[in-house]
Amino acid sequence: MMNKLIALVFATLLSTFAVAQEAPDVLVKRVTEEVLEIVRNDKDIQKGNTTRVIDLVDAKVLPNFNFRHMTALALGKDWRKATPEQQEKLTAEFKTLLVRTYSNALTGYKNQKIIYKAFRMNSGDTDVLVRTEVQEPGNKPVQLDYSLEKTDAGWKVYDVTVAGISLVTNYREQFAQEVRHGGIDGLIASIAAKNKSLQGNLAKAEGK
Amino acid sequence: MMKTKLTWKSRGAACLVAGLLAWGAPAQADETPGDPFESFNRAMFAVNEGIDMVAMKPIAQAYDFVVPLPAKAGVGNFFGNILDFRNVLNNALQGKGADAGTDLARLLINSTIGIFGLFDVASELGLERHDEDFGQTLAVWGWADSDFLFWPIIGPRTVRDTGGWVVDAYTDPTWYTINKTVAARNSLLALLFVDVRASLLPTDKVVEEAALDKYAYVRDAYLQRRRNQIFDGRPPRLEDVLD
User: Given A68, A102, A164, which is nearest B206 (Cβ)?
Assistant: First the structure.
């Protein structure tokens, strides 16, 4: 009897664990479908309301991203030279920039179909690539891949690749250029300035 | 007739390359590794931005706005079908026999059942396209790294891909099938440019907003995309440096 009870408790714990550790391909598919479902039913987003899209991305997408890792990847070897405080500031600014610029892609969503490619992983893997494809009539299909890593809080995306172009590492030379000119602080300042001007444009556009 | 056209084209290419070599000589202190022609490239990038703003983009926008989706899809499919000829050739040159076979089947099906390529029947049948061009073939043959070049109108390339582009033009049926009527051929080439430019319209705003330095953003995106194409969508991972 006691043994059975222990077994039951154990099984319950295991299944809870399994839910918490949602497989990376399942995670990508679930989040994609949830977000697209919302976009399909939201007239404001379809009309290009940036603030609304950013709210959606904030709530649904961002919890599944590891921005610290993304920023380190974008900066490359200079990351290690940055102080913890600089790393934190840089991560915050870079996050704002990525969210602001790429969230808008969702407002262009019409009837594209997302194809989830066959996914395989070994039980010990901590770093995987989930491959998808965006299909649209009359256009070439676009490869859209997510790099995910296993963390204590589940799988987190740390890179997104569109048609082979990493939205993260594509910044590496631009970051290096800024660091050569003004150091890490110079880089933080120029991303902050960029964010500010984007915010200004947005305020103007939505103020009308 | 056709011969003189092609000679003119190769002369043009030779002049461009000569001009480039003359320009690319002085190195700047702020030079990016892997971009020795940066000052030339940035100048050409600026020229191209100007041309794009006054001509190419407005035309592409008008095309995108006026032409209904089925017609646009037909145009895209038509040029895609012509590209399949190049894909067959370059897959064969790279020793990718199965892909060459699939692309040949695509070409035959779409040129006939698909009515001169206006409908992409082959894709509906599950025959996937394998994009290859001569620049990729050169890379597979061993010319892996090549310096970046930015041209007006034709846009970003590398030295290798500029050579590849010239060879691709020679093997493009568009230049041969209707060479008897120059006007028709030129209209077709113009339509190809507009179709390509129109397909890039959605990315304009993103690049404008995302880039700290638009030239560097476009350059690195081009180089990454080419790397991805050369490795057929599965490039080796770059080193990671977290902590």
Answer: A102
